[in-house]
Amino acid sequence: MASKKRARNPHDKHRLSGRRLREWGYGYVFILPWAVGISVFFLYACARSIQYALSDVRLTNGLSITYQGFANFVNIFTTDNTFPVALMSFATGLILRVPIIVAFALIMALLLNSKIRARALFRVVFFLPVIIATGPVMDELTRQGVASVPMVNQATIGALLGTLPQWIGEPIQELFSSLILILWYSGVQILIFIAGLQKVPKDVYEAARIDGASAWESFWKVTLPTVKPMILLNAVYTIVALATSGQNEIITMIYDNMFNSAVRRGYGYAAAMAWAYALVVSAALAVAFLLLRDKSDRKVVYEQRRIVMKGGYYNDGKQ
Amino acid sequence: MTASNKALRAKRILLGGNERRGLLLNIAVYALLIPIAFIFIYPILYMLTTSLMPKEDLLDSYTKWIPSSVYLKNYTDATLTLDYWKSLFKNLQIAILPTIAQTLICSMAGYGFARYKFPLKTMWMGVLLLSFLLPPQLTIMPNYVLFGRLQLTGKIWAFIVPALLGVGFKAALCVLIFYNFHRQIPSSLIEAAEIDGATNLGAYFRIALPLSAPAVVVVVLFSFVWYWNETYLTQVYLGYASSRVGGLTTLMLELGKFQASYESIYSVLEASPNRLNDAIRMAGTMISIVPLLLVYLVLQRQFIESVDKAGITGE
């Protein structure tokens, strides 16, 4: 079997064509079940869902689909008075929550990565919500009013926020009232950051210290550039997690428009909502990517690694 | 020892020296970590104490934390309301069977992507990423219709079939985890097996799969948790909207309709002493998270080390 390296070698090109064909075949053998599944349940389903969004879909003995152009899209934004509002508040929610969750996760990871006692216990506590924070559980907890930080004086915050314009004040108020649940979303991100921090070679810190950098400086110049790819990863993870969370108003709306006989306006309408929603999520992901992608910082990290590697200390096995 | 020496030592202890952190910084670290840890478990503590309260305590504004007596009837009521043992058994089915299928298929796909080159690979990888990033609401309607046609809705197959085709809950993430892991296994190991006469599939099952044990553990644990916790898609696949076919359910779904179930079991009049109260609700919430809580406490190490082992952060 041709390995990746050998297949890339131009001299082997002709000799290995039979082997290559076999490699192709085996590649497809391994991905086959997945490829079938993703084609049917994702690609085909997406195509159908576009068709639904552009049609009037009725469930009268079987499915009757009548093409009607962009009517559904016009309707969700003009005749529906809850959807555009919910979509807006989802977007502002992302803008507020993603930086909070990611920054919080980074701070927690930095604290947990330092030499402290009972580190394992703290990690168990911070990861716990990942296991138990589900839609119905969160709903019950919100009903009990335990979603906000205890002992934070709500009245004081309320008064402070009252001085702000409403469109800033309201989302922030909401933020405080469900702060615990927001922080509960940070479990996986904390672990990703810790894993990233542990990959920073100790020697780089040592070198920075010898060169006279303070802890503050080495955080900005060494730690942050190294975890930057993980910041992007975590931002993406957070956006996806928030977008599919059971607490999310919009996905409930889509469900209700499909199934809830009291309020539903049909599959076509729900599909249009889903696509509008997917566009907002994609836009959020694109913004995160553009803001956080590696520009020159990456080079700095590689440069550091190369220098250390030249010294012969750093042995990652992958580089 | 001179005075200046003493001052220097004091400074070193407080602010730290070259090798160790100072006392002040240490105090600051704990002063942050301990309250935040408390905030994290506060809802669970609240749940636990409230669930043990007789209803007089709920009304008494002086009783906030410690119940005046441990009132376990909340738990018997909640067990009955959730139809606990039956729901638990069905929930285990819904969580375990798809998890096994999902792990195997995603592992194969991840291995295929990591090890082989084949035409259109970039396109398939792109599709994989898209299926991770885009919300599942896009495909839910056509899939619901399709499941109805295939008569899967409401049956356990509605969970097993997608898992067997690598499109179970968060399957894209599972494939990515395996892809990352297998990329880091030196290909010389696989080649050595192939030189020794193993077939491609043989090399996968005998070498790559055992070597990827840490990734398997991660995917098994998380798939189990996802299948256990997912309510939105589960509701759709079980055909909750149309009719309750098959009688499958999960504890989370039962918790979601706790009030309705309670009211259909106990006659509820406005002034009735058995009215549903917060203590019973909290008891219900508590017992529906207990199974996963136990799994987590027993396997906490595996969960905590999962991210590291899965090599998600590897370049």
Task: Describe what you observe in this structure.
The complex is a heterodimer of chains A (319) and B (315). With 319 residues, chain A is mainly alpha-helical. Chain A has 2 domains: 4-72, no CATH class; 79-310, MetI-like (MetI-like fold), CATH 1.10.3720. Chain A is 72% helix and 3% strand. Chain A has helices at 4-8, 17-53, 71-78, 83-113, 119-132, 135-143, 154-162, 166-177, 179-183, 187-197, 202-210, 215-244, 249-259, 267-292, 297-310; strands spanning 55-58, 64-67. A two-stranded antiparallel ribbon of chain A has the order 1-2. In chain A, a hairpin with a 5-residue loop joins strand 1 and strand 2 (64-67). In chain A, helix 2 (17-53) crosses helix 14 (267-292), helix 12 crosses helix 15 and helix 13 (249-259) packs antiparallel against helix 14. Chain B has 315 residues and is mostly helical. Chain B has a single domain (77-309), classed as Orthogonal Bundle (MetI-like fold), CATH 1.10.3720.10. Chain B is 72% helix and 0% strand. Chain B is built from 17 helices and no strands. Chain B has helices at residues 3-15, 23-51, 55-59, 73-82, 84-115, 121-133, 137-149, 157-164, 171-184, 187-195, 200-211, 213-229, 232-237, 251-256, 258-265, 278-298, 300-309. The longest helix of chain B is centred in the first third of the chain and has 32 residues, at 84-115. The N and C termini of chain B lie far apart (53 Å). The chains are: A mainly alpha (319), B mainly alpha (315). The interface between A and B is large, with 101 and 102 residues.
